[in-house]
Amino acid sequence: MPESGAAKGRRFFAVHYFLLRFLGLGWWHLPEENNTNNFPGIYLYYSILTELVWVAGFVGLESVDPFIGHKDLDRLMFSLSFVVTHDLTIIKLYIFFFKNQEIQDIVRTLEIDLHQFYQNDEKNRRTVRITRIFTALFIFFGWMTIGNGNVYGIVQDLRWKAEVAQLNDTSLRPLRTLPQPIYIPWYYQDDSSFIPTFLLETIGLLWTGHIVMTIDTFIGSLILHMSTQFSIMQEAISTAYDRTMDKLINGIIESNDPVTLNYYEASLGENRREMIVRTYCTEQEIEIALENTLKSCFRQHQMLISCVDKFASTYYYGFMTQLLSSMAAICSVMVQVSRDASSLKSFSLVTSLAFFAAMIIQLALQCFTSSELTYQAERVSEAVMSCKWERMPVRLRRYLILMIARSQRPLQLSAGGFATMNNDCFLAILKAAYSYYAVLSQRQG
């Protein structure tokens, strides 16, 4: 693929931009607009209203529910899994609101700045497709969790109505419960208040759930695009010599007779391109052309490393939040799954399994993509070794030595300095969650 310098963004994150705008997380402008004001005019009030009602209000009521009144273990564990996930997401919201400029700079680098260098559009398009697939998958399990929970709640409410219909006026009526565990400070036992409360809870769960899913898939998409850029970087380095020869040949063809060149090229065998170049160009011209190509690769490498470093420092505590919430949520939902499976509660079991799958995907998104980023960054040194460096002048090899030296230092994303985001971290969190689950199961027994 040729080097390009287009100023128009590549729309890698168009789906996430739409969701971020709708959820009140900022009116994210396209990078080419050069506008970093994400809360213009009336949208600022829309954002404040939505975050106060659905984040501060709904998550607040959800958080106090486990500590008010007597709760059976099923509702307590299910409540804790949602509370941990939603409460720790507030830290991610802080990053999105107060580190907004840094995140936009990273997006601009990926969508515009890096495209002044060598690119492979097919790899970029494939990465966009992958990010949309795992975004849709995560959202599907999120919807399944909330939707099935609401179906289960409706079935339970119908049973409640049937039970109440058989009672006389003096009988003590059982408590009417909502599908999801949340503290409601007002009376909601009759239909006139229960239905609005039910809708309020459903919208609140959908809103906060989509905030979690949008932030996590957006971060996963950023990491995957950075790893793709390192893969493209490898291609740029490994083809640097050949691309330079092709560029010089094109210049020769434009200034000479193409028929004579084609005849001469056909008689030279496998090394015909380089021999043509060395016939028509001086050694100094070849060296200058190679130097320009290697400088472009070197600047591309440095820009990409700076982009990753900025992202690592910006989302430093976001990763730590992710690990803590995943470990606690997976542990609590495992307890819920085992209890639902043993009691054959089909609706509740499907809800718990869907939530468990969503938690696994949420953790895997960031661990697997981070591991891929580290792997692709390390492979740059292998690309340097296969770039026909032995044919280059000795003076130019220092650029390659610098690239090898930098790529041998692991480029990793840290979770608050406590862990490195990679495949090993994913397995460690699952093992820790299972260990806590085993302890809780023994205590129940």
UniProtKB/TrEMBL annotation:
InterPro entries: 7tm6_olfct_rcpt
Location(s) in or outside the cell: Cell membrane
Main location: membrane
Coiled-coil region: none
Any one GO cellular component localisation term in the record: plasma membrane
Transmembrane segments: 12-30, 42-64, 76-97, 315-335, 347-365
Family: Belongs to the insect chemoreceptor superfamily. Heteromeric odorant receptor channel (TC 1.A.69) family.
The protein's name in its UniProt record: Odorant receptor
Organism: Danaus chrysippus (African queen)
Lineage: Eukaryota, Metazoa, Ecdysozoa, Arthropoda, Hexapoda
